[in-house]
Amino acid sequence: MAEEEVKDLELMDKIVSLCKRRGFIFPSSEIYGGINGFWDYGPYGARMKRAIENLWWHEMVETRDNVEGLDSTIICHPRVWKASGHLDQFSDLMTDCKKCKSRYRVDQMADPTTCPNCGSKDLTEPREFNLMMKTFVGPVFDEEHTAWLRAETCQPIFVDFHSVRVATRQKLPFGIAQIGKAFRNEINPRNFTFRSREFTQMEMEFFCDGEEGMEWFEYWKQQRINYYKNKLKFSDDFFRIYVHEKLAHYAKAAIDIEVKFPFGWGELEGVHHRGTWDLTRHSEFSGEDLQYMDHDNSRKLMPTVIETSVGLDRTMLALLCRAYDEEKAATAKEGMDEDTRVVLHLPPLVAPIQVAVLPLSKKLKEPAYALYKEIDRHFRCEYDETGSVGKRYRRQDEIGTPFSVTFDFDSANDNAVTVRNRDTMEQERVNVTQLRDYLEKQIEA
Ligand code: ATP
Predict the structure, then answer these.
(1) What is the DSSP letter of 97?
(2) How many Å lie between the centroid of ligand 1 and the Cα of residue 341?
(3) Closest Cα to atom 1, ligand 1: which residue?
(4) What whole-number distance in Å separates Cα of residue 138 and Cα of residue 63?
(5) Which of 13, 109, 133, 343 is deepest in the core (most CB within 10 A)?
């Protein structure tokens, strides 16, 4: 293995271990040995996940008059998945090694004739494996009562298209967005949360006149690129656009936004021009006419769909991978004797804790705690009084807190506190009356 690859694997191990140690992400059901492909988000993880979710919702729904929100069920009528093609086609090719019993997705093997684990050439014939997760609805466990956990959040958007349009009186073009769980029985879950069997998607389907489809595709592609650059602060070397050349027969254009994970480039989001395929299929299978009546031009049309589809878990993983850093010798600056500081350079908008309030001494607990309670109403905050201030800074660095506010013995007299910046480690004296404003500006920057 090349030196670079070993380093990347080590980096991934360090991220996984920090996530466990500091309560971001850990294996589900760990005391029972875990369950492959399922992950729990601990206190900081849950806060960060919610922050990303809120940011996406804010950008995609709340700030737009022409995008509506939806929160649909995970289990839908089984015909939904027949119409979408998932029951017949949502499968990957799988092969088993007869010698060591390992199982693989054929398209992920460097050499599909050799077992990557033991090198044996004795593999089973590749066969189709459907990724839909099956369950039963009601007390009888038979074919008639079989249902499926949704494999993507967008299908219920198509199914509810008509109801949402009527309820909101939206005219084309407009979008419907939803955040929620999706389930896929992935053959080989791996790379931490990157490929899980239960995960969260954030999807938006934009319905428009086919004539304007490509314009809207370009628009949404640009909007999403801007979001990664300006809100999540992804630099040009961290993400790239992959243009699909082989398209589904109904699609007109498709790109993926890919991110440079330590284990290689991986898909984070897809922006797809899906033509009229989805609504046409649901019209056929349900018998409901899902065409749009354009009263202004006295015509009926089947809307064209532009989709933006991103994984929340992958976004969080990308942010953590991008943020993780070990800085040699930086600690001396704050009088600490370890030689490395571990720091997450997370964008303040999505950091699990945005502001930590630290009294210089426990004697200052009362006013410091009161200040914490005050700013906690406006930011994600934490109060910490245990250990030296240097150690507390270090704890906050490790979870990516961009600002630490220290309340010292002068604070009571001059009504000012010291704000320490995570990235520069510089300190600034800020008047308490200006604090909220100061922090808001820095967080939004
Ligand atoms: P992949 O090729 O990686 O399997 P996909 O093309 O099947 O992904 P989509 O169906 O386009 O993925 O889903 C949209 C988004 O949902 C993906 O870009 C990704 O962020 C997320 N996603 C898909 N599958 C998983 C998974 N198993 N675990 C975590 N996130 C996922």
Answers:
(1) B
(2) 34
(3) 267
(4) 41
(5) 343
Tell me the two tokens of residue 190. 């791996």
Do 107 and 190 contact (CB within 8 A), yes or no? no
| Ligand 1 probe mutation, 108, 201, 256, most atoms within 8 A of CB | 201
For the cut 80, the answer to whether the pLDDT of residue 399 exceeds it is: yes
Token couple for 166 = 């009527």
Residue whose entry in the numeric block shows the structure tokens 């509810």:
160
Nearest atom in ligand 1 to the alpha carbon of residue 203 is: 14
> Hey, where are the domains in the chain?
3-82+148-319, 330-444
Q: Which amino acid is at 130?
A: N
Q: Nearest-CA neighbor of 46 among 69, 22, 12, 13?
A: 22
pLDDT in tens, 203-253: 999 999 999 999 999 999 999 999 999 999 999 999 999 999 999 888 999
Position 331 scores a pLDDT of 66
Neighbours of 261 (CB within 10 A): 22
- Using the Cα atoms of residue 338, residue 340, residue 342 and residue 345 in order, give the sign of their dihedral: positive
Do domains 3-82+148-319 and 330-444 share one topology? The answer is: no
Specify the pTM.
Answer: 0.94
Distance 117 CA to ligand 1 centre (A): 25
3-state secondary structure of 55: helix
Amino acid at 174: F
CA of 310 to the centre of ligand 1 (A): 8
Q: Are 309 and 158 in contact (CB under 8 A)?
A: no
What class is the 330-444 domain?
Answer: alpha beta
**CATH superfamily of the 3-82+148-319 domain:** Bira Bifunctional Protein; Domain 2 (3.30.930.10)
Spatial CB neighbours of 228, under 8 Å, sequence gap ≥ 6: 234, 239, 257
Residues forming the annotated binding site? 105, 152, 184-186, 194-203, 267-268, 307-314
